[in-house]
Fold these 4 entries.
Entry 1:
Amino acid sequence: MSTSRNLFAAAAACIVAAAPAFAQQQQPPTPPPLAGPRTLVGLVTDSAGVPLDSVEISVAKLRLRVTSSDSGTFRIDKVKPGTYNVSARRLGYHPQTQEVLVADSGGRAVFSLVPRVATLAPVVSTAKASGIGGIVGDTAYHAIMGAKIDVLASDHHVVSDSLGAFYLNVRPGKYALRVSQPGYASQMVSVTVPDNDGRNIVVWLTPSSRGASAREGSNYYALESRLMRRSAAYSTIMTHEDIAKLGKPELSQLASFAASKNIDPDCEAIVDGGPYSVPVWSLNTNDIEFFEVYVDKPARGGVTSLGSTTPSSIGGGGTSGRKITTAPSAPNRAPRTSPSSGGCGAAVYVWLRK
């Protein structure tokens, strides 16, 4: 019981220390005026009108990314007249994309981001015992009894006890865990268990009356199928810990490294199993909980294919590429759980930290 309390106290202290203080705002700020020819300016606030700093603003057509200032404003120079898809994204908020016209006098975009239901990222720490142990609680730091912990693509499944604690006797390796409980939003946790010790994790579930959607269940099923079918020779998976150790801040860098080939930054990465996708240049690796890449492999007759029927203890895959298409079924076509590179040479999937 003392271990449970200590884990919660340490994790709670980290969250409190990192929590930003938001200034109170009487009225929504005035959008910035047009800044002149070949200039795109904008403003980002939350749904209450409070300016948001550090919002990632990306323009896919220009392959360009900037962040908003403390006042919520941003500016992009040397933009030719035309129509552009401009996206705003920040952790803790639902992303938005607008079609913005940049005329001869310039252009302007105004975003009002809607907060997501408050979530807390999982905390992973070293443990002396082998395997994976941990605690499941809610965002009010109360232990959750009966939460289900599934290790995807394996036969390891446990439920948390009355103190929210659980233990999984797994071998060293990389694992994707799904933590779920009725009345709460499920949580994805990635864990790398080394040869010489184990891992402790603390997972906070967010109360939700909606429950798991059919799409979420389908995406997890597809992920599990990919992990079971993957071939280590043509695919790479990484946990959040693996990604942090590599020190590659851009997803485009990570994807090229994992694929051992140059991945075009305009290629699409499937987010959280789909259908949402983004160009690989537009994401930072700090935001990624679990990463999968599948490289096209040669097949008989010189045709490339993806996926493998070779069993593996864990792995990953997805549907990625500059163009995402659904091909008609055919007798010799791979199952729908197989990833498609869309002509980019590799399929990239990312599961974001919630």
Note: The chain has four helices and 23 strands.
Entry 2:
Amino acid sequence: MYSAALLFIWASVAGHANAWTVTLAAAVTVLAVARVRAEERLLRTKYADYDACARATTALVPFLV
């Protein structure tokens, strides 16, 4: 879900690149990464077997986040 939203946002920036769109997209990206990390922490504390699932999948972009 977050990956799709970020892809859409950055594709829009590519089509309408200016300082405002790049700044806004960067801010949304930072907030999305922060939210994903917070959700990951919550899920790890709430569900004991979540670690195994998290190791097998990626949160946003494979090998990055």
Note: The chain has one domain: 2-56.
Entry 3:
Amino acid sequence: MGKKYRISVSGKTYEVEVEEVDGSSVQTQNMARTAPAPQPVVSSVSTPAPATSPKVQPEAPSGQSDLTAPIPGNVFKIHAKVGDTVKAGDLLLVIEAMKMENEISAEADGVISDIPVKEGDNIAGGDVLVRFE
């Protein structure tokens, strides 16, 4: 009998059992899928994630005026426009990655000066999504 572990992948929690085979290879078996566990938001601002899609907060150093993509994917929907005044936590856009919609929200209050991406764009992690004044 192997060791049992609980892991979280994209907001879903799984129980797996791991056993050593032939001394060097590892075999995993999906035991049971449990309800999604509450996931902390990756940000300096803590916002609870909605049940339907995870909120991904890009991490940015203090004073940075660019909001960058935390993950690679496709820009699915843009909810803001240049000139909008936003508050921390306001939904700005949605990135589709691995068939999941990830909501990207403002980290702080500000005014949008540029959105260098458009819906349908393929983006890499670290690409600038929104610039603030």
Note: The two ends are 58 Å apart (CA to CA).
Entry 4:
Amino acid sequence: MKRKYLLVLLVTLACLVAGLLLVLTLGGRKEKTKVSATAPQQPIAAISPRPESPEQARAVAAKVVEAIYSAPIAFYGKVVDQYGQPVANAGIDFGAIDEFWENGSNYHGQSDQNGFFSIKGILGAGLTVGVNKEGYDGIKGKSYQAFGYGMGVDETRQKPPTKDAPALFVLRKKALAEPLIVISRPQYDLNRNGSPIGIHLETGETGTSGMDVVEVSCLTHEELKDARGRFDWTFGISVPGGGLVERQDETQFTAPEEGYSPQEQIQMNINDPSRRWSSVMENRYFIKFADGRYARVSVSAYAGGRSFVVLESYLNPNPGSRNLEFDPAKQINPE
């Protein structure tokens, strides 16, 4: 996805350069035009003198675009795991954006025994880099990154890495997985008056009795909508007889032993300056049930009109085991 966005940005900049040159040609020479800091620095600086005709402007613009897409690339990176340890023999996928409106060139490499890798001697306006290895999971924003080369460097763009300061890529080393019961339901309807519904993590069915129940609720005040259609609302989640704790690190798959609370309520108030109002709340939790079983859940609550919650859960049926690493080959289907 980042590759697509970077490509669109580069094409847009090239078009802006062409348009700017045409305006300069047709608009006369009376005033100097200031170039935005986000415009390509090196190619613009090299344009002199001012084009005298639309044909000359187009020719100069073509050279600018060519310069953007043929910038020299020298890239250095390092792959580590979630504990900061080097990952050797990781697969590296490079994507050089070296063609206008095309996918560009692809290159492949491998990290050395210390996790380092590099690529040199290629050209392009930008470079996308992704790392992978069997037995490891990618981490959003840390295992795949994009870098610009043909646009210069300013406060809005990330400086390309060097040999002495390589870009850091992180993979999560998987632990030995145990069989887990997985529930992934599109949605459960919620009562807008705040009364809870119970969801069984063993079966995915609703109900309030049992040792595997997580209760969720939604209280909305739609009758007090403001001019922008916003209203105060509260999402609640609780574990009868057990507890929950927020799962803040997406690379953590071992439930903590302590720190659980029986319930949590999250308020969305239109006058709260500390958070941007939304009709959606998303969060992740570790769950500890009264019988000693552990689970992890992801919940997305939607308020307004028809309120509902989307839930995905991973329950370890073995009491006392806090291991919530998931292996699809060991998945237990709900009863």
Note: Residues 24 and 50 are 7 Å apart (CA to CA).
